[in-house]
Amino acid sequence: MDKIIRIGTRDSELAMWQAKTVQHQLEYLGYKTKLISIKATGDLVLNKPIYEMGITGVFTRNLDIAMLNDEIDIAVHSLKDVPTILPEGIVQAAVLKRGPSEDVLIFKDNEEFMAQKDAIIATGSLRRKAQWLQRYPSHKVVGLRGNVNTRLQKIKDNEDWNGGIFAAAGLKRIGIEPENLVTLSWMIPAPAQGAIMISALEKDEFVREACGKLNHEETEICTNVERKFLNLLEGGCSAPIGALCYINDEEITLKGIILSEDGTSKKEINKTVKLRKHIYLAQDAAEFIIDRGGKKLMSNFDKFEKKFTLCSTKKLTVSQSKLVHEDIKVDDSDFIKVRFSRIPQPVLKKELENVIITSKNTVESLETNFSLPELQFKNIYCVGRRTKALVEKKIGPVKLTAKNAKKLAPLVLKDIKSKEVTYFTSSLRLDELPSFLEENDVVVNEVEAYKTMLSPLKVEDDTDGILFYSPSTVQSYMKGNKAIGIAFCIGETTALEAKKYFDEVKVASLPTVESVIELANLHFAKN
């Protein structure tokens, strides 16, 4: 334990309290540490609400950069401030036991104003603003930025303000316990509010192992569900979305809400499932809200009018969304839903000699059904470089890979020594690969790893193009829409399906989501 773990943190009183808490726990375990404070964008820009700053990670970005530049080894964050997609190379190393998750109101004189028509409440959170206006529509909500002490002082100095909204955890951690405080038990907090997260470089095994000892499993489970719910509703950490997950008697409950910015409309859900069957809790809750009009409640923070509109038949990650040209607006939704199948245990009763894996969904399904030591495969054949990367990270080395199943088939035939192969596949798949092998006297044992279900959504008629990532996304789209605009396809097999319906079809140079986005950018940027 000679290595000194450099702990990065913002320099506010609350951030330092959190970092010192992590420092004390690591040092108690025998690790050497050092605190390094770094200014965050959210601390430097205090003249506008967070949701108007136009970027995600305003309190975490500078710490991420410092970590990637080897200036710090870990960063300590309030988890509610962390974007749901972390930068490449950075991972969540631990989540500490959660503190209070509630929001509280600190008022100046008395509580009578809450029953009156006119009142002024201060908060820098769009979520708090929307929920307050939903409950008290005649009140006025004003912006409030700065650290906890600065915000308290602003409320005290402004004679017109009746009070301000704060996170209970932040007040408690720096020892502020005002008497004029009301717990807002009706207000659903920000996803992961009250939890402290430690991030680290994925490649730094020493640091990840050290921080892993501080992880609180129940908090990790609940905050993961809340943050996935937020991610699926397309929200950054400042969007008007609330989520709270808790565990009780082997059951896990998720309360979620999404509101219009002015609070006049809302959609909410309260769903409970068995604890060990919660893998789809966030997804099911998000779909429930979206299906009932929740997507229309998302505030549009884009300040620029777009020239073109595209539909992506797959949800884009934050990093992928940033690749879209500034003239293009992308409406993205998953037109394909995936459910992992229950794979019979006898399938792996012995080491499989030849295995074909064609998607990352297969890898995740195998990981769900079996422990990693059970996944002993002698020869693994893959489709796609990203599937290959995930297989080699989770299971083992890949012998051969190809861009698509059609190109992989002859490579497998030429390489295999025995005439038998296990093909982990989806409930929907093309016949090219298994048909080719069977025609050449290879026994193909197909195992359904996951179910692919078509989930078409209605697309506006003025859309300029559709981004497709598999033949099944084309099929799903066509079940609920007509062929409009240009079809931008991830590969030849997807393009072949699209050509059945679309007059103009373009194919990406590489079989990646990023290449499809680049293809669309190049087309519309020159027009």
Protein traits:
single chain; 527 residues; alpha/beta; 24 strands; 26% strand; globular; porphyrin biosynthesis; Hydroxymethylbilane synthase; HemC
SSE layout:
Blueprint: E1 4-9, H1 13-28, E2 32-37, H2 41-44, H3 61-68, E3 74-78, E4 90-95, E5 103-107, E6 120-122, H4 126-135, E7 140-142, H5 148-157, E8 163-167, H6 168-173, E9 181-183, E10 196-201, H7 205-212, H8 217-232, E11 241-248, E12 251-259, E13 266-274, H9 281-291, E14 308-312, H10 318-321, E15 328-332, E16 336-340, E17 352-357, H11 360-369, E18 377-383, H12 385-394, E19 400-402, H13 405-415, E20 420-426, H14 432-439, E21 443-454, E22 465-468, H15 471-480, E23 486-489, H16 492-498, E24 505-507, H17 513-525
Parallel strand pairs: 1-2, 1-3, 6-7, 6-8, 14-15, 14-22, 17-18, 17-20, 18-19, 20-21, 22-23, 23-24
Antiparallel strand pairs: 3-10, 4-10, 5-8, 5-9, 11-12, 12-13, 16-21
Please, could you describe this protein's structure?
It contains 17 helices and 24 strands. With 527 residues, it is an alpha/beta fold. It has a six-stranded mixed β-sheet with strand order 16-21-20-17-18-19, with helices on both faces. A five-stranded mixed β-sheet has the order 2-1-3-10-4, with helices on both faces. Strands 7-6-8-5-9 form a five-stranded mixed β-sheet, with helices on both faces. The termini are far apart. Residues 5-208 form the Porphobilinogen deaminase N-terminal domain. Keywords: Porphyrin biosynthesis, Transferase.
